[in-house]
Write a structure and sequence with these properties.
The structure is a homotetramer of 391-residue chains. By secondary structure, chain A is an alpha/beta fold. Chain A is built from 13 helices and 14 strands. Chain A has two domains: 132 residues, Aspartate Aminotransferase, domain 1 (Alpha-Beta Complex); 248 residues, 3-Layer(aba) Sandwich (Aspartate Aminotransferase, domain 2), CATH 3.40.640. Chains A, B, C, D: Its cofactor is pyridoxal 5'-phosphate.
């Protein structure tokens, strides 16, 4: 196979050359006297990507899944009641983890293609007069369906009900790509990972923790047994500019550069860039006869990933396999109940219009190879015209 | 500062150029149809470094500390009694984790500089007629003191007592560097990490699990709550050649090459190489007036790290700081009660005789700068003569 | 700017990741006892890309221009008569060099868009009964106009005339990409460079020399003063596996891998791949209203680069500048008399169909931005359909 | 073989990590509209390393040998008389090139170990009343013998004689490492290469040209035929921020960083650093029984390379081969008449004290393996004590 591979899965995302270079360094001494001079500003600057000032962001050597667990075990106790909704593979897995860790999950089933049912959340919170619900979980961006939920509305529901429950947000495929405001939205536990909007390889789990959640974690209230993910060790060492166990220094060096890129551009500009690239993709999809977004309504459409139903009779697995094997292009597969019915185009991270025109071309070719009767070039043309006007 | 940095901490270790190159790749699709063709043999080959055939080795996106936790939570339950000994910073931290996770730790205090008290272990196992002890923990190589314990002797003690307890081994600074035989020694849970003998950056925790431990993990017997580190998810996905959550693919590509290097050389040859380089270092230390190993007797001397007491009146922190700031050389610090009294030279991983002569030179200069009355070149000369004869 | 840059100039070409990795190595000793074990097979294998068995290929630390000079100074003398044709910027520069070095250039002017006038060559060779013409120069692939000449036909003309003149070929943008047969076609001096089909950075000039030319170079016949590019030093040292002056070892390591890639694929397959990708581009151009190839007839169309006239009233410089600054895509500019009138798409080296669909998209957008009335997506669609059928 | 290779040849030198990273980039468009924004300051800044303000520095895709040729062909004509001295392999090769290119070489033979005979030069210049001598050649640092000549004294001799001859300096292993002042010393043609003090791979030849030499080159006076190395093309394109033929962009990106490192440190500090490291090496050599410098007197000792006679009966080739094969350390070989009698330690470029202690250890081991009766550690000890006091 010749030329480059084309990666359009919704994470891990393409790593910019600057970040690759920053990671390609000899091993260093993570207890060197000046290592803290590197770590301390890093821990400050990642807070800017989460948009929190009074909280902390922990950096775990783990995947985002590990940060999910850290969020739960440090703030909740076995048997605690939590409110969750399930509308895709990742919200499903999160609920599964919560159950495994012993939480009492009040789970709302939502049809895939829709997102967090804010009104239902509001109703249950309103009804929970004795505050049995300890935490409300929201999947900000359901990566499996390309659906974005409204975090701010959930915060409003909590406030309207005067409910003290913690607000947990899975922002893995959102933070660093689409608008996210930990402080302004009162998010208590915000989970992210290195391999999406942060444009790094997988290997770091990020957890933004509000002042309120830090207080609860430090309090005597019952919590789960934990050690690797315990906040207290992280806090103690982070405050000196070090880590409680050997950190993946290469990834931290890469994070330094990716934060420099993001903050140098400005988070608002980063979000806007994602919105423009995503809209071009949607314009393309709209041209493909028989294809449609899994997102059930415009309000749910995600700017980081589009999940697309293939036309009747066209197996999405053929599209994905063909794109990969014939056109060296990785698309995201349809997960769980979407298997065979949908495929996904990731459009987050380090991308540009021409890369997406390539991805759309690969998709058009793979769709046609798989039997779809779309018009060649139709989607690319729509995307081109949108990009011409908006870049 | 000019020229290269010299890294002689006992991990993370120097990453070979071949491994660095293997990791410096564009991001790839960890769900690609052929990704399993890469993962399946990798999971087989890492078993060869652990010397196990009937067990499994799990690869976690975590530090070695995470693998400690995985070993405990998957096989033991809250309140289970375990036998441990504490003779350095890492055995101390492991015992602390066990306590935090709710184990009933039967802790034997051993003077630092000595290793696992096998006779005492044997006595307690013998006395434990009703098998209240569920697991025996052994720190194979105590990185803080440069002390290696005799795992095989602990196995013999278990067998002599006919005791069914699981044998846990912290092999983080041992496996891949000094003789380790998971299968032959009947080790049930063997913890390692990417950043020591495996010559990779930190970021992967390895856990070798015996068939017996796998069976216990899969059984209905009570265990701790766990999700991120749960064996069952790993087994299910690993069996298909994939991982339950996004793996750090770059590190896996690096692991492929480091395993190729290690297995290509042969584990016995790897161990022998470490033994020769270590002995050269000890010959040097023996020449330094007023210095001596923390290891209290030759039987405890580690071939992966030497902890060295500075002469009376010489603060080890000055040696370390001087080596780092004036000679661009990182030595390991004295941890906990050894702070200021000892420093460490890591001699594991990708090293050679000339690198160690450089490290010994830096140490000699830093020792003299810090006030030690050692003879310049004395240690280097002894190492040189040893290396000349044994390489 | 985000995402990757898109490079579609006709060289330097995209460097494959495997080659980049091979070049990213610590400096090595180019006089090490085993360096020859690397060089000797390299010098053999590069001959396979030139398709010569009885000749040699010299590797100069220079650009391709340096190899032009080496070819001339080692085999010709001041005042020697040579036959050349000028039909683009590179054949023009070559003729200029020949004049500067003191050759008596019999220069045939050909309208740009056409290639080597074989019949005219044949006529002049036929007429040259006393063999005053010492060498015949042919630009295999005129990079400025996207025109490929017929080397074999020139050889036939020489043979038909029974003419002993040396056959010089500028194969810089041909060798390694389109069919080239040094031995079979009786090419005496074949010039190439590292930065085109060989997929390396610039920095190596390659010169394939036939047995006949080597003999002339070694003979007592008058030649030009030369030192840096002298064959004799190269031959003497190359025969031992070394070089007469410090070679760019990183580039040589990269060359090893690029040859492995090319020869592993097979030269015929490499050529075929270029033909397919090129035809897709031409299908796209054919759809663009008002655009046409500079190549005046199908027989001249190059499979490594297409030069394209912009529609009336559209300044090609605007297209190029827009593609670069708005779409991060580098196209080739119109050189000399083509400035403003044409732009070029390089389609040689490490490319694939999706990369070219991206390049065509960028071109379509830039053309429309510059005022061209082409139909969006029209070219991409044609290319897609061609690639679907031929890959 | 494990661990890193140790490179202590007098060039190519160790490439700093920062420079390696800067070179490891995707291919770029060397005709991009903003490429000149990179090139123009680069061409200015390299002048600071040559210490010239009124001249130019040309950057050729070639080795340093190519820059030798460029210097001659652009300013001298066939038959011109030049004054040269021969006292090592590189001054010998330079004289050979001059002869080949048709110069009338007035060659002074000097015993190897000594440098440029300034008094003899002065005498001949004084005697040359009609200024038949067109140029005076000086090898600043004879890399084969580790001998540095006094350029300033040669300038004084020229001035004292009121002689207009051009002053050519081979500064390949000097410029960027030891004091060099093109402007102040009135050097007309100063040759350097990327692979020594500039800490880059080989592949760039640098040529500093004085205003006077530029004027001569541009004048109508007879010069040699030249094309690849012609000043006029370089001047024309460099003045626009581009190059006349495809430049090795990766090396230029590396040069940017190496100049940043050098100029950031300050040339005087760079020179001082070389002086300190060199003196440590000489202190070591002085301890080795039976060894002595090839440099015949302290005034000739080079701060970039030491050539060392092995003790009677010890073949230097054994030392070099042993160091390479057993200790992974590359030393420089004895060239020409020094073959078997001497070896060389390069101490220029990106080095530090601990690297040199390693090199000295390797040398001590290899010397003893080869039969030398030196005291182990003796040289390293002397170097250590010197470095302790002077770093």
């Amino acid at each position: 196979m010749h030329g480059i591979s084309h990666l359009f899965i919704p994470g891990p995302t393409n790593v910019p050359e600057e970040v690759r270079r920053a990671m390609n360094i000899p091993m260093e001494d993570m207890r060197a006297p000046d290592f803290c001079d590197f770590v301390t500003p890093l821990l400050q600057d990642i807070k800017k990507a989460f948009r929190t000032e009074t909280g902390r962001v922990f950096i775990y050597p783990s995947s985002g899944t590990g940060a999910w667990e850290a969020a739960i075990t440090n703030t909740l106790a076995k048997g605690d009641k939590v409110l969750m909704a399930r509308f895709g593979q990742f919200s499903l897995l999160w609920a599964e983890m919560a159950t495994r860790l012993g939480l009492d999950v009040d789970l709302i089933e939502v049809e895939w293609g829709n997102g967090t049912p804010v009104e239902e959340y509001a109703a249950r919170l309103e009804a929970d007069k004795d505050h049995a619900i300890k935490a409300v979980f929201v999947t900000h961006n359901e990566t499996a369906t390309g659906v974005t939920s409204d975090i701010e509305a959930v915060r409003d529901a909590l406030d309207a009900a005067g409910h003290p429950a913690l607000l947990f947000v899975d922002g893995v495929s959102a933070i660093g790509s689409i608008p996210f405001e930990q402080e302004a939205w009162g998010v208590d536990l915000a989970v992210a990972g290195s391999q999406k909007g942060f444009m790094l390889p997988a290997g770091l789990g990020f957890l933004g923790v509000s002042a309120k959640a830090l207080e609860i974690a430090a309090s005597d209230s019952p919590k789960m047994a934990r050690s690797y993910f315990a906040f207290e060790d992280m806090i103690k060492l982070n405050d000196t500019g070090y880590f409680p166990y050997t950190p993946p220094t290469q990834l931290l060096r890469g994070l330094r550069v990716s934060l420099d890129l993001m903050l140098g551009e400005g988070m608002e500009a980063v979000w806007q860039r994602h919105a423009v690239l995503a809209e071009g993709v949607r314009r393309a999809i709209a041209e493909w006869e028989g294809c449609r977004l899994v997102a059930a309504a415009p309000e749910w459409q995600s700017d980081t990933v589009s999940a697309i139903y293939t036309p009747e009779g066209v197996d999405a697995r053929d599209v994905i396999f063909g794109a990969y094997s014939k056109y060296r292009t990785s698309l995201g597969s349809g997960l769980n109940k979407l298997a065979g019915k949908a495929f996904r185009i990731g459009h987050l991270g380090s991308l540009n219009s021409v890369m997406l025109c390539g991805a759309l071309s690969a998709t058009e070719m793979a769709l046609r190879d798989a039997g779809a009767k779309i018009t060649p070039g139709s989607g690319v043309a729509a995307a081109q015209e949108y990009y011409r006007a908006h870049i």
